[in-house]
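Example 378.
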Amino acid sequence: MKIAVMKETFEGETRVPLIPPTVDKLVKLGAEVEFEAGLGATCRYEDADYESVGAKVNNDRKDLLQTADIVLRLRKPPVEEVELMKKGCIHVSYLDPFNELELVEKMKDCSISCVSLEMLPRSTVAQKMDVLSSQANLGGYMAVIIGTEQLDKILPMMTTPAGTIKPARVFIIGVGVAGLQAIATARRLGARVEAFDTRPVVEEQVKSLGAKFVKIDLGETGQTKDGYAKELTPEQVQKQKEGMAKACAQADIVITTAQLFGRPAPRIVDRAMIAQMQPGSVIVDMAVETGGNVEGSEVGKIVEIDGVKVVGLANLPGLVPLTASQMYSSNLGNFIDHFWNKEEKIFNLDLEDELIKGSLITHNGELFSEMYKSIMKK
Ligand code: NAD
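Predicted structure in complex with nicotinamide-adenine-dinucleotide:
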């Protein structure tokens, strides 16, 4: 089976979908791996590094797409490239399927078996291929590093002959994978950390990392079977804002990571809350690319609102491309390995498997994932 690995075309993307150690693993499984010339350049991998583990370089992007049985990439494909692929080709990448309706339609019409890695169920068996977790983890780390860099204070307490410096206060809103890593990173740097999430189950995790959980009574909140937060009512959002106002006002750095699966991110920090914050403090809006948690944050920019720096930088994992690529590549390799039939040396697209049921968006000219179809109907 021929696996093609495409070079990323999205402007500014520094991450690489597959790095040589994963290619080595796929070649050893018996796959024929062909890659686009220059694939690993942003992470300092030369074409020769891929060739040395048994992959074949191809300079012709069109030919690569036309001849592959499986296409692997990081970001969603440009829509005009879909019709180049063979009917029945398996395409695996991030897809953003809730926002890319034209792309999904095209995948369906061209009979591509299109896997959206974001749609993998968050089950134990899927952990090794969970790109959302691996990249969110790095995003949470980078949010603290950037927030710290923008701050004109240090994070740890320091007792010196020149006096005692109080530790900085960091408030994390949203405690999924990114939020937990942000708490851990801020704690390691010596900050005093508070956190809040609408899912009360995370309180224990927050405490176990040495942070304080801010309690706000929102009534019934809950989570979906995959552990995703449910959307709050407007009254609950108002209560949340009131409950968080004090923690925001006292914080030197606020990091927001709140997301809703398949929906725009909730808007939870408004201008009035920003106005209550101390001048010089910093907000990092990690949800800026999905609509933003913070009123006034802008994608790709650091803006100043009432003396507060609001950081809206996109693609935080892309700021550490080597680590991000190592993790993404490993996730992708594990996905292929999990479904690889080692005797016949083919990818077994098992339509009865729970992971495939969740993440296969189009197949055989139809929409496939029931979860996707049900969310799109709402
Ligand atoms: P996410 O990126 O979807 O959301 C980030 C956080 O924002 C979540 O904790 C969510 O509860 C929170 N949030 C939503 N609305 C909010 C609001 N108004 N205010 C404050 N917080 C708000 O989350 P994620 O990191 O992708 O994790 C989703 C779920 O998957 C979690 O339950 C996580 O524990 C679970 N998970 C499981 C596994 C596994 O077992 N394989 C792996 C990773 C994640």
